[in-house]
Write a structure and sequence with these properties.
The chain is 81% helix and 0% strand. It is mainly α. Among the domains are: 1-48, no CATH class; 126-159. Helix 1 (2-16) runs parallel beside helix 3 (30-47).
Length: 159
């Protein structure tokens, strides 16, 4: 980026007819130094070119006018505009259709579930300990029954 900016400054100075700016990176960079020398040489060469003779100027202008007349008239752009508009409209419909054509969400059941949750939250302090402790209580009862059964088997095996 710095070299592009430096090249621009070199070119602007030469276009204005001023001496090259004293930039430290011109001498340090061989590419910038080569660019400065070539641009300066090109500028000198172009200043020394004599102006074109009037006959040469006229022949060039005749050729330009003839080329302008030979240009075919531009064809109507309506069909291409219509095709582009149709393509854009089709693309818009394809992209926007899912957003426009959404099935309506049921309103009733979602509110019913919210009411049910609110009712359950009122009962939580009473039912939560039972719900949390029920599996543990069941397991403890099974363990106690196993211990009693084991005790009876062991007692029955002694004479």
């Amino acid at each position: 980026m710095k070299s592009w900016l430096t090249k621009f400054r070199i070119s602007a100075a030469l276009d204005a007819g001023k001496p090259l700016p004293d930039l430290p990176n011109i001498a340090a960079d061989p590419e910038l130094e080569r660019f400065a020398r070539r641009t300066e040489a090109l500028g000198r060469a172009l200043r020394n070119v004599p102006p074109a003779a009037p006959s040469q100027h006229e022949s060039i202008m005749r050729a330009v006018r003839a080329a302008a007349r030979r240009e075919s008239p531009r064809r109507a752009l309506a069909p291409s505009w219509l095709a582009a508009a149709a393509a854009i409209a089709t693309l818009a419909v394809i992209c926007l259709w899912p957003g426009i054509h959404r099935p309506a969400l049921p309103v009733g059941p979602s509110l019913g579930q919210a009411v049910q949750v609110l009712e359950m939250s009122e009962q939580m302090p009473h039912t939560m300990p039972k719900m949390v402790m029920a599996p543990l209580s069941d397991e403890w009862a099974r363990l106690d029954r196993n211990v009693q059964d084991t005790t009876q088997v062991l007692l029955a095996s002694f004479p």
